[in-house]
Amino acid sequence: MNDITYRVNLPLHVSEMIELYRHCSLGARRPTEEPERMQKMLDNANLVITAWSQDKLVGIARCLTDFTYTTYLADLAVHDDFQKQGIGQQLIKEVQNNTEKHCRIVLLAAPAAVDYYPHIGFTAHSSAWTLLKDE
């Protein structure tokens, strides 16, 4: 197992984020061909936990949070070569470590990850809704 270092709100170049997303299942559902949009996604997140293997970005938890009541975990991504090492689970723990005790994490699971979240303690919620602007 690789030595992984976790960092909070470390300045990150968008090209590193795009490279990571292209090497995990999340990349197919993110605008990786639009670096300006990806940069805005990164810039407007107010809690970003990253996982590093030496100088290589291997995981990210990109969040929007008020730090006390709710954290929306917008992206949880782990590089394909680093899957099944507990990195995703540790990223979630780091999110919890950087928010208050009773702050709830909310997320929308990617289809490929639906079975992952109950395995690590998440509870399904039946009334999540989405609305895309201009739809």
From TrEMBL:
* Name of the protein: GNAT family N-acetyltransferase
Enumerate the CDD domains for this protein. NAT_SF
Which Gene3D superfamilies does the entry link to? 3.40.630.30
Q: Which Pfam families does the record match to this protein?
A: Acetyltransf_10
Going by the entry's taxonomy, the superkingdom of the source organism is recorded as Bacteria
Originating species? Zophobihabitans entericus
PANTHER family for this protein: FAMILY N-ACETYLTRANSFERASE, PUTATIVE (AFU_ORTHOLOGUE AFUA_6G03350)-RELATED
InterPro entries with a match to the protein in the record: Acetyltransferase_Butenolide (IPR053144), Acyl_CoA_acyltransferase (IPR016181), GNAT_dom (IPR000182)
What keywords is this UniProt entry annotated with? Transferase
Please spell out the taxonomic lineage of the organism that makes this protein. Answer: Bacteria, Pseudomonadati, Pseudomonadota, Gammaproteobacteria, Orbales
Molecular function GO labels: acyltransferase activity, transferring groups other than amino-acyl groups
| Domain N-acetyltransferase, residue spans | 4-135
